[in-house]
Amino acid sequence: MLADNCVDGRLVNSLTTRELVDECKTFFFGGHETTALTLSWTLLLLAMHPEWQNQLREEIRQVVGGEVVDATKLAGLKKMGWVMSEVLRLYPSAPNVQRQAKDDIRMDKVIIPKGTNMWIDVVAMNHDRSLWGDTVHEFRPERFEEDMHGGCNQKMGYVPFGFGGRMCVGRNLATMEYKIVLTLILTRFSFSLSPSYCHSPAIMLSLRPTQGMPLIIKPLDN
Questions:
Q1: CA neighbours within 13 Å on the CB side: how many for 14?
Q2: Confidence band of 19 (pLDDT split at 50, 70, 90)
Q3: CA–CA gap between residue 124 and residue 122 (Å, rounded)
Q4: What is the rounded distance in angstroms from the CA atom of residue 132 to the CA atom of residue 22?
Q5: How far is residue 11's CA from residue 8's CA, in Å, rounded to a whole number?
Q6: Which pLDDT score is estimated for 67?
Q7: 43-56 burial by CB neighbour count: b if 16+ within 10 A, else e?
Q8: What pLDDT does residue 26 have?
Q9: 175-204 pLDDT tens trace
């Protein structure tokens, strides 16, 4: 958008009010809602799998200790990274990726005409047994221990942040925010699933729990 308004590297046309509003919406959705939803789904899955709560707390104790969390320590939270990847696999906050064909594309006997808008169903791919095997619906963060693709038998089968030149520019920021917030929560509280919880994920622009996510939160005895 900015490139279209530039000549010889100089801005010659300002963005319209509509363009500014649309950009603000993009920043809100891409920079806030997606990370918040990923953290919400993480708390749910950790409430359902308390053994992973304990593993992450122990990792935090070893890596961070009693010091203030800062960016230099985040890379050491390996298991937390596995958990984030697995949450994004099971409940991707951005449930689809869009691309437009720049040229005619032939795939076997199928021809995709130039200009065709294509929607890639990330949720369906992440729950495809032929890609992930028999444990496709199980919460298993360890699948990302040795493989950044989580053992998916197709490297393009796991694209939580998109792919190619238009991959999410906020990927590193989102990971940093996620690890900092989750560290602060895990070192202060334990959480379990409320009996009133009703599992109801649905796609409404993003993948969200339509009936909320009630958890039982208790302070830790430090």
A1: 4
A2: confident
A3: 5
A4: 36
A5: 9
A6: 83
A7: bbbbbeeeebbebb
A8: 66
A9: 999 999 999 999 999 999 999 999 999 988
Q: Are 39 and 210 in contact (CB under 8 A)?
A: no
State the angle between helix axes of 34-48 and 171-186 in degrees (0 to 180), rounded to the nearest 10.
40
- Tell me if residue 105 falls in helix, strand or coil: strand
Does residue 22 have a pLDDT over 90? no
CA 146 from centre of chain: 19
Amino acid 64 reads V
Q: Which two tokens stand for residue 80?
A: 């937390």
Q: State pTM to two decimals.
A: 0.84
For CA atoms 146, 149, 151, 153, give the dihedral sign. Answer: negative
More confidently predicted of 167 and 161: 161
Query: In this structure, what token pair is assigned to residue 206?
Result: 């993003």
Could you identify the residue written with the tokens 């940093």? 176
Q: How many residues are listed for the chain in this entry?
A: 222
Query: Taking the mean position of all CA atoms in its chain, how far away is CA 115?
Result: 28
Q: Which residues are annotated as a binding site for heme?
A: 168
Nearest to 191 by CA among 84, 50, 14, 41: 50
Q: Is the dihedral of CA 105, 110, 113, 118 positive or negative?
A: negative
